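Tokens as discussed.
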């Protein structure tokens, strides 16, 4: 093929892509997610969809397809036409589940076009207020003396709340006993009843209970201290240098989604989370509303997938 013909084809494809983006969207858009209605991801999806529909000029329908830690919805979107009309609202459980399960029918990073994160959340390592453990170091020292004696709860096997504690144990060469629950709320109830010693909890659901005096936060899993609890040190400050696990919820589409459509959606998401009402609601859920570029989101997912893949291999953790 001559350079002239090749150049003409490239120009034709570019023109076609621009034309598609110019007409987009011309019909309603579907935001899919893989979690029960009323949960964190569903609420954020609805907040985004409601505001983004105003700028895009089309209605956005939220469709929940719960099951297998969100992977059923992820697979459906990965197999959908890359036309911008079927998108995925997903959390950081996506790379964690993909690393720990051998049965996902898609490539965790490469089968998606990454649009932007909408909100970030750290996790808090918490105990009951009357616990004898005053710091994360106390928990780690106890686990060194009595491996497997300290019990922690999570939202289920393979949940990011499970893998976060396992990563702490792996990095400190200690062992905790995992007690899985059917969700984060039941795990918190279990700790309140004294059935477990500690949990890693999402900042949103547990913040009010820390303020009310039911629980005490020992550490935050982000790189920096959390704005809502500035006196709570990070995990990295307590003997695990470089430790960071940050949760997030964002927007993606199937691979090969045209770049102009990705850019349009990225711009609309940025606008949506800057609207005072949306920003305020995301913050009230314990989140840090902050957009990323598509490249930054892809790098984040790839990095977290690598972290959880390493943990799965080195600690021999699998959810299959």
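Sequence:
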């Amino acid at each position: 093929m001559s350079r002239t013909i090749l150049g003409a084809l490239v120009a034709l494809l570019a023109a076609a892509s621009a034309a598609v983006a110019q007409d987009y969207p011309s019909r309603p858009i579907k935001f899919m997610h893989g979690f029960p209605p009323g949960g964190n991801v569903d609420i954020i999806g609805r907040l985004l969809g409601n505001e983004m529909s105003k700028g895009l000029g089309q209605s956005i329908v939220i469709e929940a397809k719960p099951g297998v830690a969100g992977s059923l919805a992820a697979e459906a979107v990965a197999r959908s036409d890359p036309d911008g009309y079927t998108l995925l609202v997903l959390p950081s459980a996506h790379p964690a589940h993909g690393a720990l399960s051998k049965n996902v029918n898609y490539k965790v990073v490469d089968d998606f076009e990454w649009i932007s994160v909408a909100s970030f959340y750290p996790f808090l390592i918490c105990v009951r207020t009357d616990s004898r453990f005053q710091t994360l170091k106390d928990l780690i020292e106890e686990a060194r003396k009595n491996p497997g004696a300290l019990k922690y709860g999570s939202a289920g096997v393979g949940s990011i709340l499970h893998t976060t504690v396992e990563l702490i144990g792996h990095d400190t060469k200690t062992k905790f006993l995992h007690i899985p629950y059917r969700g984060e709320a039941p795990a918190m109830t279990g700790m309140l009843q004294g059935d477990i010693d500690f949990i890693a909890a999402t900042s949103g659901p547990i913040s009010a209970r820390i303020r009310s005096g039911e629980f005490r936060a020992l550490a935050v899993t982000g790189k920096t201290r959390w704005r809502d609890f500035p006196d709570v040190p990070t995990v990295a400050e307590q003997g695990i240098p470089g430790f960071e696990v940050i949760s997030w919820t964002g927007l993606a589409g199937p691979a090969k989604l045209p770049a102009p459509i990705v850019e349009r959606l990225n711009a609309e998401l940025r606008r949506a989370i800057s609207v005072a009402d949306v920003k305020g609601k995301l913050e009230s859920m314990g989140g840090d509303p902050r957009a990323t570029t598509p490249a930054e989101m892809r790098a984040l997912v790839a990095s977290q997938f690598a972290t959880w893949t390493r943990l799965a291999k080195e600690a021999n953790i699998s959810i299959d």
